[in-house]
C-alpha cells in the first residue's frame, strides 16, 4: 500500500520559492478559470485548448527561470517538477534540437494523429503557404515548428 501524503511527510519548498510563488499562483488561478469555463458551442477538443496553453506557459516559465535566466537553483527546479509545476517530459523535449518551440507532447505522438505522422502544427509555415491557416486539433496550436 502506498504511503499517505500528509503535511508531516511533505517537504517544504526550497529557498527561492517565495520569489516565484505569486506567478505560480496566477497560473493556478488561470487554470481553475479554464477548467470551469463553459464549453457550450465549442468542439469536443476545443474545450481543453486553454488548459493545454496554460500548462505550456507554466512549464515554459519554469524552464526559462532555470535554463535561460538562471534565476533558480537545481534543487528548486527539481522540486517544482516533482510537485507538478512544470511538465518534465515537455521540458526534456525543449532541450533537444528541433523541439525548442514544441507546444505539447501529443503533437509528436504519431499514433494520435492522422496517417501515423506528427501533427500539422509541426510543419513549417513556409512549406504550407501563407494563406493556409493551421490549427492543431489536440491543443489549438497555430504552429510550433522550429523552422518558423
From TrEMBL:
Recorded superkingdom: Eukaryota
Q: Name one Pfam family in it.
A: BUD31
GO cellular component labels: spliceosomal complex
Instruction: Name any Gene Ontology BP term.
Output: mRNA splicing, via spliceosome
Q: Is this entry keyworded Transcription?
A: no
Q: What is its main location?
A: nucleus
| Keywords from the named record | Nucleus
- InterPro entries in alphabetical order: BUD31, BUD31/G10-rel_CS
Q: Subcellular localization, per the record?
A: Nucleus
Its family remark reads: Belongs to the BUD31 (G10) family.
Question: What name appears for this protein in its UniProt entry?
Answer: G10 protein
Amino acid at each position: 500500500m502506498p504511503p499517505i501524503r500528509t503535511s508531516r511527510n511533505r517537504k517544504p519548498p526550497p529557498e527561492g520559492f517565495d520569489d516565484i510563488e505569486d506567478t505560480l499562483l496566477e497560473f493556478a488561478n488561470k487554470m481553475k478559470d479554464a477548467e470551469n469555463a463553459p464549453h457550450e458551442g465549442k468542439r469536443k477538443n476545443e474545450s481543453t485548448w486553454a488548459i493545454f496553453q496554460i500548462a505550456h506557459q507554466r512549464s515554459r516559465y519554469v524552464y526559462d527561470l532555470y535554463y535561460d535566466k538562471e534565476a533558480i537553483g537545481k534543487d528548486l527546479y527539481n522540486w517544482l517538477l516533482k510537485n507538478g509545476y512544470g511538465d518534465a517530459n515537455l521540458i526534456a523535449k525543449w532541450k533537444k534540437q528541433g523541439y525548442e518551440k514544441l507546444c505539447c507532447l501529443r503533437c509528436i505522438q504519431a499514433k494520435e494523429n492522422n496517417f501515423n505522422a506528427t501533427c500539422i502544427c509541426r510543419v513549417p509555415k513556409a512549406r504550407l503557404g501563407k494563406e493556409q491557416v493551421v490549427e492543431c486539433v489536440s491543443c489549438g496550436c497555430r504552429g510550433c515548428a522550429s523552422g518558423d
